[in-house]
Amino acid sequence: MRIDKYISGCGYASRKDVKKLIKQGLVFIDGEVCKKPEEQTDENSIVEVDGERLIYREFVYLMLNKPQGCVSAVYDKKYPVVTEFVPEEYAHFEVYPVGRLDIDTEGLLILTNDGQFAHEMTSPKKDVYKRYFAVLDKPMEEKDVEIFAGGMEFKEFTAKSAKLEITENPNEVYIEIAEGKFHQVKRMCERVGKTVTYLKRVAIGNLKLDKSLEKGEVRELTKDELDMLYKK
């Protein structure tokens, strides 16, 4: 790729500023001074700017512990958006949320700039189950477990078989679904006569929310975590 795109992709400088660095003779490719922004390089090249070696990454994968009060979008006229929590060092990647969580739902949200990865994680055909912790106004019963397992018909979609796990406190449950349609967990609970008063996503596939992440905090996914997601 072009050297100006490579350097901007590393987050070192904008493509406009890269031209200035090149004019100053501060950019080197494999030990040779770079003279033009359109010069070509690749991932095997050694690129240095002002003596610092750069490492290019095309994609980035972030874990956010989403708080309530923000929407799963990159822009909204009315509410704060989840990308506002992304540290400045990742700004040039222009990440976006993988799937969505309702404005009043907390928990695990992945942000990335990898479209294929996002599709793999959100397509109902891939059966990547999302696990939620829910607090209800009324206790769940054992008969509800079978109803969830049988799937549910809604006007807009058919919910696949879902796993309902009742804790020692029947007003607190874990629910696993494959689709993640609009208000799906809440609507499934309403179907059996319960109202969700608190909802938090705790896992996507084999990836669990990092308990050390405070609400609004972000960190990169590790290679092992990415491998777990793809295996799922």
From TrEMBL:
GO molecular function, one term: rRNA pseudouridine synthase activity
Pfam families in the cross-refs: PseudoU_synth_2, S4
Matching PROSITE patterns: PSI_RSU, S4
Ranges of residues in domain RNA-binding S4: 1-65
Enzyme Commission no: 5.4.99.-
GO biological process entries: enzyme-directed rRNA pseudouridine synthesis
Organism: Hominilimicola fabiformis
UniProt protein name: Pseudouridine synthase
Annotated SUPFAM superfamilies: Alpha-L RNA-binding motif (SSF55174), Pseudouridine synthase (SSF55120)
Family designation: Belongs to the pseudouridine synthase RsuA family.
Domain of life: Bacteria
Keyword RNA-binding: yes
Keywords associated with the record: Isomerase, RNA-binding
